[in-house]
Specification:
By secondary structure, the chain is an alpha/beta fold. The chain folds into two domains: 93 residues, Urease, subunit C, domain 1 (Roll), CATH 2.30.40; 307 residues, TIM Barrel. The chain is built from 14 helices and 18 strands. Strands 1, 2, 3, 4, 5, 16, 17 and 18 form an eight-stranded mixed sheet that branches. The chain has an eight-stranded parallel sheet with strand order 6-7-8-9-10-13-14-15, with helices on both faces. Helix 4 links the parallel strand 9 and strand 10. Helix 7 packs parallel to helix 8. The protein is globular. The structure holds zinc ion.
């Protein structure tokens, strides 16, 4: 991770000690210790001397701050939905130290000047680190490749038309060939647009009962297959975003077993919600790809245990309340979730014993780092001082009114969860404190 970038104010980060936290990272459980940070980096455990900032972390988990490979920040041009200050404050409140923002903004992030502006404006905020993704095609029109070399030079870390599937297989091939030369990862929104058509929810028993247009899991599986084949053809590191269905994930698994350099992510909502929520006709549940059936959710969870899934991507996709209050056919796709992602998955998956805490942490720390080609986040001396302090014990209901995000609604409104982040340090500076 390019942590050398100046972050926040120009003064050095204060020497800080987190007293008495349980330290857990990819290297293991280090027990209850004092964690010392200096100059934006981890200094060591149980040191001595003066600290400019001393924080009582007793009873809390200290762990590397999370990395989100998939967040929609809506900048530039859609700041009524989210802006850098609200989106990065929301990420910090979720325990995230670094997020990758998507390119489907207005204008699209297909211009190096936009990438540069995003990086600079975000750094000045002193919140969660922003590493923008850039568009695969100019204007996300799926016709002409963007200038990846110039975009990478400006700070782009990933290439993607996310939000819009790349329909033209030849263009996808050329994008992958170009990305290979630069060592960039290509993220795909794998849905066959001609098969998903105007589906607003998963095609199945629930859509038939409710009489709503469905989007079959085949639309995902077909496009995942194509995108994996193009990874094989070109050698490109292809990252399949938000895999939602058993059929789609089986395809990813089959290609991985053959050594094809594909990675994949699943989202907090596809792991915890099914299409039966549509009985309420509430457009909050309208996401792309759609919420699937209970058997798909079970398969996704099993795939977490088997190590088939590389990481959790939030696909945090904020919209205004007015937009989401439209009817189910015209409301936009997407929901906000970055502030509840960890507590939600901790409460629904770790507490019942479906996956272990180290597995969940891996999916939100080392997993996304591997996808992006970044070093493994740890608490070892010299590592960036990107640290989340988490309360695994206290239970608190989801309260959308208190979200830092501008999208103050949630499918989990009122649900009691455990595992809330209490504090997030980015480069040794306080980005969030509850
Ligand atoms: Zn997408």
């Amino acid at each position: 991770m390019p942590s050398e970038t100046v972050h926040g104010a120009n003064t050095p980060a204060p020497r800080t000690v987190l007293r008495g936290a349980r330290l857990l990272d990819a290297r293991g459980d280090h027990g209850v210790r004092d964690l010392w940070l200096e100059g934006g980096r981890v200094e060591g455990f149980d040191l001595e001397g003066p600290a400019e900032l001393e924080l009582d972390a007793s009873g809390l988990l200290a762990t590397p701050a999370f990395i989100d490979p998939h967040m929609h920040l809506r900048v530039p041009g859609q700041e009524e939905k989210e802006d850098l200050a609200s989106g990065l404050a929301a990420a910090a409140a979720g325990g995230y130290g670094t997020v990758v923002s998507m390119a489907n903004t207005d204008p699209v992030v297909d211009d190096p000047a936009i990438v540069r502006a995003l990086v600079e404006e975000a750094a000045a905020l002193g919140l969660t680190r922003l590493r923008p993704a850039a568009a695969l095609s100019m204007g996300l029109r799926g016709e002409q490749l963007a200038d990846y070399a110039a975009l990478q030079e400006a700070g782009a870390v990933m290439i993607t038309d996310d939000g819009i599937p790349v329909a033209d297989s030849h263009l996808q091939r050329r994008a992958c060939e170009y990305a290979v030369e630069l060592g960039l990862v290509v993220q795909t929104h794998s849905e066959d647009p001609s098969l998903r058509r105007d589906g607003v929810m998963h095609e199945g028993r629930a859509s038939h009962t409710l009489g709503l247009p469905g989007n079959p899991d085949s639309a995902e599986a077909i496009m995942v297959f194509r995108d994996c084949e193009i990874s094989l053809l070109t050698g490109a590191r292809v990252h399949i975003a938000h895999v939602s269905s058993e059929r789609g994930l089986r395809v990813v698994r089959w290609f991985k077993e053959q050594g094809v350099p594909v990675t994949c992510e699943v989202t907090p909502h596809h792991l915890t919600l099914t299409d039966t929520v549509w009985e309420s006709f509430d457009p909050v549940f309208k996401v792309a790809p759609p919420l699937r059936e209970a058997s798909d959710v079970a398969y996704l969870r099993e795939a977490l245990r088997r190590g088939v899934v590389d990481c959790i991507g939030s696909d945090h996709a904020p919209h205004t309340r007015a937009e989401k209050d439209r009817d189910v056919l015209t409301a936009p796709f997407g929901l906000p979730n970055i502030e509840v992602a960890f507590p939600l998955l901790y409460t629904k998956l770790v507490i019942p014993g479906e996956i272990t805490l180290p597995t969940l942490l891996n999916l939100m720390q080392a997993g996304p780092a591997r996808v992006l080609g970044w070093p493994e986040p740890t608490l070892e001396p010299g590592a960036p001082a990107d640290v989340a302090l988490i309360d695994l014990e206290s239970e608190r209901p989801v309260d959308p009114a208190s979200f830092k995000s501008k999208a103050r609604f949630s499918p989990w409104d009122g649900e009691p969860l455990r595992g809330w982040p209490k504090l997030t340090l980015v480069g040794g500076r306080l980005a969030f404190r509850s």
